[in-house]
Give the backbone structure.
Amino acid sequence: MSPRAPGPPVLEVEELSLELGIRGRWVQALDRVNLRIERGEALGLVGESGSGKSLTALSVPGLLPANARVTNGAIRVMGEHVLGRSERELASLRARSVAFVFQNPTTYLNPVLTVGRQIAEIFERSPELLDTTGRAAALSRLERRRRARHKSIEYLRLVRIPDPDRIVDQYPFALSGGMQQRVVIAMALARRPHLVIADEITTALDVTVQAQILGLLAELRRQIDMTLLLITHDLGIVAQLADRVAVMYSGRVVESADVRRLFRAPRHPYSRALLLAVPTLHGDRTVFRPIPGSMPAITDPPGGCRFHPRCPEVFGPCAAARPGVATVEDGHTVACHLYGGEG
Amino acid sequence: MAAPLVARLYEVAGQLRQARLAAAGGLVFLAILATGLAASALIPASVVRDVKFAAKLAPPSAAHWFGTDDFGRDLFSLVLLATHLDLRAALTVVSAALVIGVGLGALAGFVKGLDEPLMRITDVFLSIPSLVLAMAIASVLGRSLENLSLALVFVSWPIYCRLMRGQVLSEKEKPYVRALRSLGVGRVRMIVRHIIPNTVFPVIARAPADVGLILITLAALSYIGFGPGPYVPEWGSLVAAGQAYIFQAPWLVLFPGGAIFLTSLSLNLVGDWARDVFDPRLRS
Amino acid sequence: MTVPLLEVQDLVKHFPVGGGLLARRRGLVRAVDGVSFQVPAGRTFGLVGESGCGKSTVAMLLLKLLEPTAGRIAFDGRDVAGARGAALRDFRRRVQIVFQDPYGSLDPRQTIVSALTEPLSTLGVVAGRARAVERARESIALMGLDPEVLGRLPHELSGGQRQRIVIARALAVAPQLLVLDEPTASVDVSLQAQILSRLEELKGAQGLTYLLISHNLVVVRSMSDRVAVMYLGRLVEVASADELFTTPLHPYAAALIQAIPVPDPDAPRVAALARGDVPSPVRIPAGCRYHPRCPYAERVCRDTEPPLATVRPGHLAACHFPGVASRATG
């Protein structure tokens, strides 16, 4: 883990609440979500489908769907507010500060442009990335092109693509899923963003390829001090890559802690149950410990704590009141009545 | 910040609008249908032969609500009489073309050996411009409205055939077909109970729009002289005949043209709504 | 000695690439290239592999949804090739499959009750509508679903409900062998555990035999008695689940196992053992199929394809240097 560089946190999400318009009604999809990522840190945002983790991630670069509205809260990237910005300002943010890597690289890449062209496009849009002496505008077009291509090959090499001089002229269809995902990561890094958001980027990949990509991300973190918001449902990936973890359930962050703390001593009953429900390869044949019930539909949530109908430790206040956030240890917060808390 | 809210409002308004428009369209079409039936009962067919050159090209008045045509006949009666014939012609053409096209298209989709020959046959039909094809058939069979309708069936069925065949081919590959096979569902049952119900509706959804097209094609045929003639009341031939007097007596084109327009529009609205009702719930 | 419930011998399925009425055939996809294994009754046999290895094709061949290019499939001692009419119906009743995509596996226009009762009549399992509906209700309840789902259409239900419904549909005909093709691929972790534990219970209660096909080794390990690892159309290792996961003999098997991220932040990070990408079954490497990706490949691996041979009792591997991966990493 790299030492923390001083400066504002790269990402601060404060009390973010969001509603979705579904079938004519507004339903609460995010409930006062709080996140914080310092420079060089990797935060794993874990949750099952419907937990709100993707929505939270999408709200940072302003990529929310049309039927979403933010009802409360603030998002700051490098200290600057993001919510309420115009589309132009957000586009600029996406180009410079926040790079979003999606799940399916095939749909993200333009099939009619070579891989090299797609990376080079980034430099053509932001020519200052090409030049360190500050005279980017003075370069001729030819010179810019040459440098852009050179940089593209550099970034392909950075993501450990073999034979980058040849790959730079290939079209996406000629590349495998794993290679495509590496290209997308290269495109994200070419912008020299402050924050990289990776949303389930290995879900569509084979397991051996996933291992390679995860290894690559770990190396990149060390090599270029990358700040990462990692969204996944896979606890193994989180354990391997993240410094801190935030567990989400039905629109709320139910627990947030250092990765070791979370795996060794999870406090929230959902986190506990989730860790138990994941079978592992260790030890003898595993016993299945499923969590009864299923995540509530956001159109029909239970009252009080949203997890209470499935909670093995449910008691008095759980059905009636929304639990506040309690700090059980330094940097470890839980939203559960068992621990008191406010907010 | 307001953008998501506005988008949401648009969506809701759009749905309501669609339903209301479709209802309006449906009502208008039914009204036209009723008018056609009433007219054929109430207005004597002899109006067509009621030639009075002295009264020709008179503008709309109390005596003649739509004015008179170049033969001096009451345009209002003609347009109303034409309603029945036109609707009957257009609806039968589209229905027949649908039945033939869907049937052959389904066959092409299921029976590998029939696919190639059927597609080449549709190629031949589609390569001939529809008007030319209709003219050719009409010149052989004669220019009655019935024969023209038959000619238009020949013109229309290939598209439905192609559409249906495409739908069937892609539906066959869907995972549920495979799953049902493993559950013992035989070929015939698969086709009849599963594949056809899932594929036929998008094809049918095209039909209402095609009714308008047929009416316009009939007008075009009349325009080039292949129509049923001045003694058969038909909107298209009225428009074609009136075209020569468009500046002196625009009502000759406006009223029958308006009838085509209304029929086409109302059916389109109903068709759009029907297509949406049948399709989106199939998408998750 | 009892006959295994399912026996597969030298199963081959090749697909031509290109071709048609006038075009020349350009190549061959050797999706399944000589696969043999046995599944005794009452056991769970796991088949593991990544995309393109041919495991889904094996499933299609076993269900007679595809005809093999060569090889033999025997169910309950009888060769299933050429089964027609009543014999085919009987086979279908006894061997069922749950496909990977639960939403795609259901006719979007069919109500759930209809989806469940239809196979009961096509396979001649129950006579009469009333009995069929009764059976449908029982199957639904068996999978822990509320009977009100019977009146619904697939798109009105959640992914988890649909997955349980397709399992219920397969179980309703009372099969002997149930092939599960990636049963938890589209399902969340907590739901996965529910479905898998249910399947485990039902196996004992209904006397089922499972063939579990998955790329998720953790799921395979937790449910299987015996596991086969497939790569590019061939089995590269077959062993009991415990032995495979503690001492894999084939480097690919070892790589697969190592590749699973362990939910323990302090577990040692092992570098990915398989190099490069999963190759396409159109261009299968010469010699050992895995050699281009294998960090332990030697000359002989490029020249000769190793046969699937018994290395230890009950443990087969197709490798010139079985066990090299375990020795290297200790």
Remarks:
- Residues 103-192 of chain A form one domain.
- The longest strand of chain A covers residues 25-37.
- Chain A touches chain C through 48 residues (CB under 8 Å).
- The mean pLDDT of chain A is 87.
